[in-house]
Design a protein that fits this description.
CATH superfamily of the largest domain: Intergrase catalytic core
Number of helices: 14
Strand order of the largest sheet: 5-6-7
Number of strands: 7
CATH topology of the largest domain: hpI Integrase, Chain A
Distance between the termini: 91 Å
Structural class: mainly alpha
Order of helices and strands: EEHHHHEEHHHEEEHHHHHHH
CATH class of the largest domain: Mainly Alpha
């Protein structure tokens, strides 16, 4: 019997639109009850979709191994991890950890306790204040968690941005790239923008981010001009409150979808021959540029809508060319501080004998040449 995921738009607002059903159309109750509870918690549709696909994978594993949620323990959880690692292609450590977290939440929802059994991998770690000060406090966790590789932020170069940017022909597409590249918006945040979120008089944009967190981002003059051209020259006459809508086709005037945005970027990646250009890479480029320009981390954290400053710290990565540039600047500064003229004058001045205190010797800086 195969389990599949469906989406129903006719359900009440208090129920999750994502439903797990079997071949006969019967609902998988223990999964759908959990999804309905997350809907009551006002989780976004994007989060519900991720939860549903994770639980779909768990339900299929239960069907294949003839296990059930009531029999779940730490040993079966370890077996579930082995099952995922043996798949081809193997999922990433981040995907497996997220699935484990969802399974633990599901078990606590139904049974009101943690998954029973002796933990196999207790690990010790230390925590400190979110602002990075104070003494570290040791803690021990028993949750199984795979080690994730450290994330490396790779922004686009100036040449890649210029090559990708020049391929756009409509003001709508230019405005979408501008708010991603010059304000760091996520693709889902761009699609959720409404007309009322744009304020020309205050030159700012109201953004609804992850977890329904609200923030305001400033708009540069060039971005405002592109948005004004889009609204006055290109945007169709429609009753849709969305800021970015389809410009042509049978969906003309309807809000732009995630599939449409992916198709737009896919087309321009092939046209510009910049395969790294995707919506989130533009956001990474914005964060890296702001750090290099000297913006403080708390201000960048607020601007990008991060919940934890450790996420903002990922952008504090110095590229090799920046290291060599700083090295050359430091060497030039040291040479300028101790030139031959200043060293010769200091050697020609006679020592003072009026003081009885021992005279301190001054060592010349490296790279200096005295007479």
């Amino acid at each position: 019997m195969r389990v599949r995921l469906l989406m129903h738009h006719s359900l009440p607002a208090s129920a999750s639109p994502y439903r797990l059903v079997d071949d006969c159309g019967r609902e998988v109750t223990w999964v759908n009850q959990f999804l309905d509870a997350q809907k009551l918690r006002q989780l976004s549709l994007r989060s519900l979709r991720v939860y549903a696909y994770d639980l779909l994978h768990v339900a299929r594993w239960f069907k294949n191994t003839r296990h059930s949620l009531g029999r779940l323990n730490q040993s079966l959880l370890l077996e579930y991890v082995r099952y995922q690692l043996e798949q081809q292609p193997s999922p990433t450590a981040q995907t497996i950890n997220h699935r484990l977290c969802v399974v633990r939440c599901l078990y606590r929802f139904h049974y009101g306790q943690e998954i029973p059994g002796k933990p196999h991998f207790p690990r010790r770690y230390t925590t400190r204040s979110p602002l990075g000060y104070g003494r570290r406090h040791p803690k021990i966790t028993t949750h199984l968690r795979l080690r994730q590789p450290r994330r490396v932020i790779v922004p686009l170069s100036a040449d890649q941005v210029a090559c990708f940017w020049k391929g756009f022909r409509t003001f709508r597409d230019l405005a979408i790239v501008a708010v991603m590249l010059l304000d760091g918006l996520r693709s889902c945040e761009v699609l959720q923008l409404q007309l009322q979120d744009l304020s020309f008089s205050e030159a700012r944009l109201h953004v609804l981010g992850k977890g329904r967190k609200q923030r305001f981002v400033p708009l540069p003059a060039d971005t405002l001009q592109v948005l004004e051209n889009y609204l006055h020259l290109e945007r169709p006459l429609t009753n849709s409150p969305a800021l970015f809508v389809s410009l042509k086709g049978r969906h003309r005037g309807h809000p732009m979808t995630a599939a449409g945005l992916r198709s737009l970027f896919r087309h321009h990646r092939l046209r510009s021959r910049v395969p790294q250009a995707n919506p989130h890479r533009l956001r990474h480029t914005f964060g890296s540029d702001m750090v290099r320009a000297g913006m403080s981390l708390p201000a960048l954290m607020q601007l990008m809508g991060h919940a934890d400053i450790q996420t903002t710290m990922l952008y504090v990565q110095i590229a090799p060319e920046d290291v060599w540039r700083e090295y050359a600047r430091a060497v030039a500064q040291r040479v300028r501080l101790s030139t031959p003229d200043t060293m010769s004058r200091s050697h020609r001045s006679p020592p003072s004998t009026s003081s009885s205190k021992p005279r301190s010797r001054s060592w010349p800086l490296p790279f200096s040449r005295g007479p």
